[in-house]
Amino acid sequence: MTEAGTAASSAATTLPEPVRQRVLTLAAQALGQLPATDVPAPLRRFASFAPAKRAKLSASVLGPILETDEHFRRLTAFQVRREHAELGDAVAEGIPVPMADPVEVAALAYLLRPDEWEQRIAAAAQLPVETPRADDEAISRLSDQLDQARTETRQVRERLREQVNELKAENVTLRRKLNEARQRITGLQSDLELRTTEAETADQRVDAARSEVEREVRRLRARITELEAVEHAARRTAGQERELASTRTRLLLDTVIEAASGLRRELALPPGGELRPADTVAGTEPTAAPVGRTAPEDDPALFDELLALPQVHLIIDGYNVTKTAWPTSPLHSQRQRLVTALGALVAQRRIEVTVVFDGAELSGPVQLNPPRGVRVRFSPAGVIADEVIRQLVRAEPPGRPIVVVSTDREVAESVGKLGARSLSATSLISRIARA
């Protein structure tokens, strides 16, 4: 620590109480005027307070910082000297001011640190301690109020200065916009005059065009009247021609019918539908065998006989057939090969075909392109394909031929009870291979 710092610290610790209080009051007033970057961190929360409140609440922190922070003390002294210009200049230059309050002079000397500032503090320390009077308290309050009023006035003045600057900038902007608006208005007026002239010219053209259109409408109406008369005459002529053609056709048909009747009477032909020439040939008629009962279930001939039944519905247990025919192929390949082969079968036989696959085998959406005439169904969640096959059989009307292809014995027995005929998967596979 320097000798000046040591002396300052020693004097500060021995400041008379009135001088110390005045130093804190002056420093608190200056604190509110300093930039935030120059205020030590412990004092920043007091900077926005009112001067009296700031001096009261920051006293315990402000005093030690003034003793130890030389830079902050100098900034405070500079601000105090601005606020008390006359007395502050006199104290800073060492000029005696006999009429000034010794306590005020000592407080300024402590902050400004002119030559012999310690003697001024010592002189203030030798003053008798007087009991504060009511007038002194009133003066102190008025002084605080005056300081607060000065601070508020300065703040208001700064705000007004900022508002004036903003208004000036706004005035410049408004003047610029006004000039631009005037230029636009001038341009719009010129454009309006031009467009008015063009509109008048357009009105004249419209009037001329309207007259031309009216003449054309009158001409077209006359032409329409002429064409309607021609159409009426053409319709009357076409009607007469159709009536004449119908009369000719009716006469020709009557002539043909009468000629055929005369020929039948001349040849003495019997009425048709009772006896055919082939019925006159003697022979033994065979006994009809029940369809699909005399051949094994995997016989392709039996499969063809069942498909030849009128309005037959072929229902196929999909995976039962594909896993028998192509067990090593992926499921999507099995499905596509089966429906493709069935498409060829439908094209040959013109039959109704429904293929049922078990939905439990699916891992996601199915991409399948069945050919025309092949219906593909997947069993819903929680339902096996066998149950869907039984539902399809039950949905058909009694008496319709139904053929179910499945090697599953339980499926064969259940559909047999419902009136359907079952075939093994090998019969369909053989038929597909033969095709």
UniProtKB/TrEMBL annotation:
InterPro entries documented for this protein: YacP-like
PANTHER family in the record: YACP-LIKE NYN DOMAIN PROTEIN
Pfam families reported in the protein's UniProt record: NYN_YacP
Coiled coil (residue ranges): 139-230
Annotated protein name in UniProt: RNA-binding protein
KW Protein transport (keyword) present: no
Ranges for region Disordered: 268-294
Keywords: Coiled coil
Source domain of life: Bacteria
Coiled coil is among the record's keywords: yes
